C-alpha cells in the first residue's frame, strides 16, 4: 500500500521542479545543502606587493522536517460488499497530502521573498515594464548569455504581451508574430530576451481556487544548476503506511505519513526574483 501511495504522490505540476532544489533521503537521514559564500578574488596592486588572501567559505544547512498525514477510514461492510473502494480514499488522501506539502513549501518561499530588496523582489499593478525589465536585465547578466526564465501562472504571464510593444513617434507597435502567438497560445513565448514558461496550476479539489499564487512571476537565471536555487526541499523516505481494523465499530482505516521539510538557503544572492502583480 505504501508503494502504491508513493507512486500516486507524484507532482502534477512543474512548480517544485522549476523553483526548488529537491533532495530525497532515507527515513532518519538528513540532507545537507551547501552554498558558496565567497569566491577567489583578484586585486590590482604595486609590482611585488603581497596580495590579500581570498577566503573561500561555504554555508551548510540541514532542514528541520515535519510530517503531513492523512487517515482515511471506511466501514468494513461497505469494503467487503465492494460498494466502496479503499483505493479511492487512498487517491483522495494522496492528493490532499500533496496539496498540503505544496502550500507549506509555497509559504516558506513567500515569507522569505517579501523581505528581499530589488532586484530580487518588487511589485507592480499588472506588468509594469519599468519595474520588471531591470529584474530581467539583472538575471541576463548573471546568466552569462543564457536566457533568463519568466515562470508564472497564466493569469500573470498572459499580461506580458501588452508590454512587448515599442513606441515609434506617437504610436505603439507590436510585431505580427507576437499578436499571432498570443492569439494561438494565450501567452507569448519570449519577453525581451527571456523565455516565458507557464506554471501548471491545478485547482484545489472541490473548489475554483488554484493551488499556487496566480499573481507571482518568478524570474530565474538561465543555465544554472538546481543546487543554486534558494528554495531547498527534502523528502525523508517514502510514504509510511499503517492500517488497522476495529471490531467494535467495524471500520477499516489507513494512516499515511510523509516526512518532508523546506527552507531558504543562499550565499551572495538568492538565485531567483519574484515580481508580485498587485492588481485585482
Which CATH class applies here? Answer: Alpha Beta
What is the distance, rounded to the nearest whole angstrom, between the alpha carbons of the first and last residues? 44 Å
Q: Biggest β-sheet: count, sense, barrel?
A: 6 strands, mixed
Structural class: alpha+beta
Q: What would the CATH topology be?
A: Major capsid protein gp5 fold
Describe the structure.
This protein has 280 residues and is an alpha+beta fold. The chain has a single domain (2-42, 54-277), classed as Major capsid protein gp5 (Major capsid protein gp5 fold), CATH 3.30.2400.10. It has helices spanning 2-8, 15-19, 76-81, 86-113, 129-143, 154-157, 176-185, and strands spanning 20-25, 32-38, 57-62, 66-70, 73-75, 121-124, 149-152, 166-168, 171-173, 190-191, 194-198, 216-220, 231-246, 251-264, 273-277. The strands form four sheets. It has a six-stranded mixed β-sheet. It is flat, with a radius of gyration of 24 Å. The two termini are 44 Å apart. The relative contact order is 0.25.
Question: Strands, helices and their partners?
Answer:
Blueprint: H1 2-8, H2 15-19, E1 20-25, E2 32-38, E3 57-62, E4 66-70, E5 73-75, H3 76-81, H4 86-113, E6 121-124, H5 129-143, E7 149-152, H6 154-157, E8 166-168, E9 171-173, H7 176-185, E10 190-191, E11 194-198, E12 216-220, E13 231-246, E14 251-264, E15 273-277
Amino acid at each position: 500500500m505504501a508503494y502504491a501511495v508513493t507512486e500516486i504522490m507524484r507532482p502534477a505540476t512543474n512548480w517544485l521542479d522549476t523553483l526548488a532544489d529537491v533532495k530525497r533521503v532515507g527515513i532518519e537521514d538528513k540532507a545537507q545543502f551547501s552554498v558558496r559564500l565567497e569566491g577567489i578574488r583578484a586585486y590590482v596592486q604595486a609590482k611585488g606587493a603581497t596580495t590579500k588572501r581570498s577566503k573561500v567559505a561555504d554555508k551548510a544547512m540541514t532542514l528541520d522536517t515535519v510530517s503531513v498525514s492523512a487517515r482515511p477510514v471506511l466501514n468494513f461492510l461497505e469494503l467487503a460488499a465492494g460498494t466502496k473502494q479503499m483505493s479511492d480514499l487512498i487517491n483522495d488522501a494522496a492528493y490532499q497530502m500533496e496539496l498540503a506539502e505544496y502550500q507549506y513549501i509555497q509559504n516558506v518561499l513567500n515569507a522569505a521573498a517579501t523581505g528581499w530588496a530589488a532586484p530580487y523582489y518588487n511589485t507592480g499593478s499588472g506588468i509594469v515594464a519599468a519595474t520588471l525589465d531591470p529584474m530581467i536585465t539583472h538575471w541576463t547578466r548573471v546568466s552569462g548569455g543564457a536566457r533568463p526564465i519568466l515562470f508564472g501562472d497564466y493569469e500573470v504571464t498572459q499580461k506580458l504581451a501588452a508590454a512587448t510593444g515599442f513606441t515609434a513617434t506617437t504610436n505603439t507597435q507590436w510585431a505580427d508574430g507576437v499578436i499571432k502567438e498570443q492569439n494561438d497560445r494565450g501567452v507569448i513565448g519570449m519577453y525581451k530576451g527571456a523565455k516565458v514558461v507557464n506554471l501548471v496550476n491545478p485547482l484545489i479539489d472541490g473548489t475554483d481556487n488554484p493551488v499556487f499564487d496566480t499573481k507571482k512571476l518568478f524570474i530565474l537565471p538561465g543555465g544554472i544548476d538546481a543546487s543554486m536555487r534558494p528554495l531547498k526541499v527534502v523528502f525523508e523516505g517514502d510514504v509510511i503506511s499503517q492500517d488497522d481494523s476495529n471490531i467494535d465499530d467495524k471500520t477499516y482505516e489507513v494512516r499515511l505519513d510523509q516526512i518532508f521539510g523546506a527552507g531558504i538557503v543562499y550565499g551572495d544572492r538568492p538565485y531567483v526574483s519574484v515580481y508580485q502583480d498587485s492588481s485585482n
